[in-house]
Amino acid sequence: xxxxxxxxxxxxxxxxxxxxCKKDAGPGGTxxxxxxxxxKEYNYNFTEVIGEHWAQxxxxxxxxxxxxxxxxxxxxxxxxxxxxxYLNKGKYTIFVYSKDTTSLYPTGDVIVSRExxxxxxxxxxxxxxxxxxxx
Length: 135
Hints:
By secondary structure, the protein is mainly beta. It has one domain (24-134): Immunoglobulins (Immunoglobulin-like), CATH 2.60.40. It has one helix at 2-21, and strands at residues 27-42, 49-54, 59-64, 72-75, 81-87, 90-99, 109-118, 124-126, 130-134. Strands 1, 2, 5, 8 and 9 form a five-stranded mixed beta sheet that branches. Strands 4-3-6-7 form a four-stranded antiparallel beta sheet, with no helix packed on it. β3 and β4 form a beta hairpin. The longest helix is centred in the first third of the chain and has 20 residues, at 2-21.
C-alpha cells in the first residue's frame, strides 16, 4: 500500500514538474519575427495617394498569445524594418496603427495586424510588408 502511494506521489511530482517547465509565448526563446512597414501618404481627405515610402520610427506592437494589451513594441528602422527577437514557441499578433482612409472610425486610426505562430526553436518568421496610410 505504501509503495503505491509513493509511486503516485512521484508520478504526480513529475507531471507538475513538466507543466512548470512549459514555456508560454513571449521572451526567452531563440526565434524571431521580422518585417517591414510601408506608408502610403494621402491628401487631406484620402482621395489621392501623394507619396509612398518605408516607415521610419513607426511603432510596431507585439501581443503574446491571447493577451488583451500589447506586450512589447519596436520602432522601425530608417528602411521600415522591425524585429522581435528571442521569442518562445507560441502565437503572436503583430500590429501597427494606420490612419483610417474610410472615415468610419471616430478615432481616425485603425489597426493593421498579422497573426503568426512560432512552431520551432530557432525559427525566423518574415512577415509580408505591413502597409499603412498617413496624411
